[in-house]
Amino acid sequence: MICFPIIGREACTQLGRLFITGTVQSITIWEKAMELRDLKVTLMKVEGNCSRCREGMEFEVRNAKLHLPEEGLCLFALGALIPNLTASIINAEPKEDFLNLINEFQCPDPFAEVRFKVEPLDHVTA
Q1: 81 pLDDT higher than 80
Q2: Which of helix, strand or coil describes residue 6?
C-alpha cells in the first residue's frame, strides 16, 4: 500500500473512476488490483417443505457476477447468501478473513432446512 500525505491543502485525485476532492489528511492507493475468487454454490440438502429449491441445484459467481440456473433460485435463499458470497469472493488469507473458512450456509426459512455449500473454483479473476 502506498500512502500520500496531504496536509492542509486542497486535493483532487482520480483513483480509477473515483474522484476525491477537498482537504484530506492522506490518500491511500493499493499497489495491486483486488483479486476476486470465483465460486460454485451447490444446494446440498433440502429437509422440510420447500417448493422453490431442489437438491443438486448449482450456480456460480464469476468475476462478481451471478450465473443462476435456468430454473431460477429462491429469492429468500439468495438474499441470505448474498452477504456471505460478497465476502467470500475476496481473495484473502484465512488469518485475515475467517469467513473464507466457512463453506456451508443455510436459508433462514423456519419450515425447511436448505443448506448450500460454497466452493472456490480453480481460478481467480483480477
Answers
A1: yes
A2: coil
HSE at residue 10, side-chain half, CA atoms within 13 A, is 1
Question: pTM higher than 0.85, yes or no?
Answer: no
pLDDT in tens, 96-122: 666 667 789 999 888 888 999 999 887
Give a three-class secondary structure readout of 59-94: EEEECCEEECCCCCCCHHHHHHHHHHHHHHCECCCC
The answer to whether residues 76 and 108 touch, using CB atoms and an 8 Å cutoff, is: yes
- The tens digit of pLDDT for each residue in 10-40 reads 344 444 444 444 444 444 444 455 778 899 9
Q: How far apart are the first and last CA of the chain?
A: 17
61 CB-side CA count, 13 A: 22
Picking from 29, 37, 94, the residue whose alpha carbon sits closest to that of residue 64 is 37
